[in-house]
C-alpha cells in the first residue's frame, strides 16, 4: 500500500520581518469588496439572494413602522434586480456629519442608517446599518430613485462609489404616485462567480414575509425564470398573518384539532403574535421570528413560549383529570411532551432587539421572554376553556408522547447497561480511529459487512473510523422513539457518535466532525442512504445544520486500455474518456451546418446529454406526447412559460374595484372580521388562495397544441423538464439534420440521424484492449482501491448534506418515508420512468 500523508495541517512560513508597514487599513467599501463573506456570508448563489434580502428588509422596516403597504420585486432578464416600495422614501437632504446627502450617506457609508437613533424606526430588522451600502459595494452599478417631498431624486453608483451628484426633478406621469424608494442594481461578476436565482427559495422567503406582516402586499416577478412552475409572477398578502401561516404549514400534516390558537398583543413595546396547532407527526415544528428575521437558534421569545405552553397544558390537564390516576399514568407533562407534533409560528417585534451577530440566529432580549409568556399563557387558557374538545385532543397527544418518552428512556437505559456489561461504551463492530480530536476525526457509515471489511483494511487508522451496518435500518419516519432505540443498528450508530439525540444532543460530545455515509451505487444503496438521511434529519438535525454530514461518492466505472487506467465517477466522465481513447481521428460534420464540427473531447461532451435526451424522449413518448408537441415545448419560446392556474370566476364588483386599485393605494383592510387567510391581491396575479372551510377546487387550465391537450402534470413531468434543459446543449446536433462521420481520410457513415449517432460511433470505434468495469458494490473493490477512490482525503469526492430549506426537506421526507400512500404514489408515478440502473 502506498505511503499516506498525515492528516495534520500544512504550515507555511511567512516573512521574518513584521512591522507597522505590514498592517493594511482598508477604508469605506474597499473592505466589503475585499472580504464580502463577512457581510453576506457567501459569494455563491445564496450571496446573490442575500443582496435582495438586504434591500427588501429595508422596505419591510418601512411597513413595520406603518409607512409602507406594498413592495414590488423584479428580477430582470440580465440578472439585475429592482425593489420598489411605497414608504416614506430615503431622506435626501444634506447630512450634517458627512456633508453629503442622506441618500448618498446611506448608500456609500457603512453603519449609517435610520435604525440607531430610535427616531426613524421604532422596530426594524436591520440593526447594523450595512445593508444598502453593502449591496451597493458588491454591485457593478446601482441606481436609486426616491419619491418624497413632491420631488423625484435619482443618484447612480458604481461598485460602492457615487457617479456624479443627485439629480432632482419634478414628478411626471411616468412616475409612480405618492412617496417611496426604488433601488435597481446589478450584482458584480467580479465578486460573484455565478449570478443566479433560485425561484423556490426566493418566493418562499417573500411569502413568509407576507405572512409575518399582516396586510403587507409583496409582489414578486421574475424575467430571469421563463419556465418556472408554478409561475414567475406572484403576489402575496395575508390578512390572517401567522394564523394563516400555521394553517398553510399544517395542510398536509393531519391536524389533531380543528381550531388554531392565535394570540396577538403588545406588552411594554414588544409586539407578540403567536399561532399554534398540533398535527399527527412526532416533530416539533416551531418557527420563530424577531422583527421578521428568522431566528433559527431560538432565543428568549421561544423560551417564553415554551414555558407558558408547558405550564398551561399541565394545569388544564390536572384540572380536568386528563392525566389519569393509575399506576402507569403520567404525573406531569414535560416540555418535550407538550411540543411533539406542534406546528407553531412565533413572531415578535422589538424596539431594540439583541441578536447574536450579523447572522441574527438567536434573540437575547430578556424582556421578550416575559412578554411572550404572559401573552401566550393568558390566550392559551382562554382557548382551552372555549374549545374543550381541542384541549382534550392536545392533552391526549401530549400524554401519548409522554408514555413514548418513558418507553424510550427505558430503551436508552437498556442500551447503556448493555454497553456497560460488555465492558465498554462503544459498539463492538466499530473500528475506531486513534485520533481523539473530533475536528480531525471522521467516521464512515458503511453498507454491509463485506464493504466494512474492505474499508477497515483500506482506511487510515489515525483519523478514520469505520462502522458497518447490517442490512437496512429502521424507517424512523414511521416508528416511535422506543422502537427506534431498540433497533440494534441505530443503537450502535447513536453510541458510536456519542452526542445523543433529540433534545439530549450535545455537540461537544460528538466524536467525529465528519460523518460520512458510504453505500453502494445501486438501488439498495440509495434506499439505505435515504433511511440514514431520514434518521439524521429527524433525530440529529444539528449534524446536518453544522455541516458534519457527508455522502461519499465511490466511482461508477474503472476504464483501462493497455497499461493506463482511470476511475470514472459519472457517465459524462465515461463518455469523455471513451471519446479520447476510442474515437481517435473520428470527426462529425453536417452538410446543412458548416459550423458544426465535433472531434475527440467535443464528441465526449455532447454524448452524455445526447443519450439523456434520447432516454427522456422515449419516456415522453411512453406518456403519449406527440413529437411535434415535444418539439414546440423544447424549442418554441411561446411555450417556455405556461400558466396552468385555474381560471378564476368573476369576483363581486366591489372587491374587484379594490383589488384593481392603483399600484400604491393602501392595501390594508379595514374589515377586522375578514377571513383570516384571504389574500387581497390582483386576481390576475394570485399566487395561492387559502380557504379555511371546504375550499372550492377549480380545474387546472389546459392548452391545446395542434389538437393535443397539454396538462400541468405532463408539462411538469421530469422527462419533459429534462428535455427542455438539455435541448440548448445539443440543439446544434439535433437541428443539423443528417450527420456525416469521418475517420481519418475516409467517410465511414453518411446520412446519420442525430439519435443514431451514439450507436454509429460505437460501431466505428476501436475497442481492442479496452476494458470498462461497472462497480455497483463497495465490496467489489480491494482495500487499496477503496482508499484510492473513496477514502483518500487528497483524491476523494464527497457531497456535504445541507437542509437550507428545512420545511421543504420535511415535506420530502414525509412524502417518501411517511404513512400517507397517495403522495408517495404520485411521486413515484411522476419519476419512475426517469430511474436508471435499476437492479431487478
Automatic annotation (TrEMBL):
Coiled coil location: none
GO CC term (a single one): chromosome
Keyword set, alphabetical order: ATP-binding, Cytoplasm, DNA-binding, Isomerase, Magnesium, Metal-binding, Nucleotide-binding, Topoisomerase
Record-annotated site: Interaction with DNA: 472, 475
Catalytic activity, EC: 5.6.2.2
Broad EC category: isomerase
GO BP: any one term: DNA topological change
Binding site for Mg(2+) 1: 447, 520
One Pfam family of this chain: HATPase_c
One GO MF term: metal ion binding
Catalytic activity: ATP-dependent breakage, passage and rejoining of double-stranded DNA
InterPro entries for this protein: DNA_gyrase_B_C, GyrB, HATPase_C_sf, HATPase_dom, Ribosomal_Su5_D2-typ_SF, Ribsml_uS5_D2-typ_fold_subgr, Topo_IIA, Topo_IIA-like_dom_sf
Record text on cofactor binding: Binds two Mg(2+) per subunit. The magnesium ions form salt bridges with both the protein and the DNA. Can also accept other divalent metal cations, such as Mn(2+) or Ca(2+).
Biased composition, class Acidic residues, residue ranges: 667-679
Superkingdom to which the source organism belongs: Bacteria
Subunit architecture: Heterotetramer, composed of two GyrA and two GyrB chains. In the heterotetramer, GyrA contains the active site tyrosine that forms a transient covalent intermediate with DNA, while GyrB binds cofactors and catalyzes ATP hydrolysis.
Similarity comment text for this entry: Belongs to the type II topoisomerase GyrB family.
Protein name from the UniProt record: DNA gyrase subunit B
Originating organism: Candidatus Lucifugimonas marina
Source lineage: Bacteria, Bacillati, Chloroflexota, Dehalococcoidia, SAR202 cluster
Encoding gene, per UniProt annotation: gyrB
